[in-house]
Automatic annotation (TrEMBL):
SUPFAM superfamilies: Ankyrin repeat. Keywords: ANK repeat, Repeat. Transmembrane segments: none annotated. It comes from Geodia barretti (Barrett's horny sponge). It comes from the Eukaryota. This is Protein TANC2.
Amino acid sequence: MDRPHFMELHLKVMWQIVRLLLEKRADVSICDKNGCSPVYGASQNGHTDVVDLLVQAGADIHLATTEYGSVPLGIAAAKGHTETVQRLLELGANPNHQNKVITDCHIIIVDYTHTTRL
């Protein structure tokens, strides 16, 4: 199986697993030991469709208790996941959120400037 088809299959399976967990009332507000919520994890990996599923189940798009105060929008921006950033903004994410170091808007600008110089 070539890589694009494998990734497509992987994403479909992951989406189905998340849907099944939500049907069994999985807690969408729980954070792991690093302070990452399910929306944070989906945003970090650019899984916009999973973000939508979680939000439909009542997840907070601002929830994360990471060491640096990062939120889903900031991590999606830092990882370059444009579609996820756009969706989080549509859902009301605050582009002026200030973590302990920098605002999410600055993350977007710094990352964009850095990658366009390469």
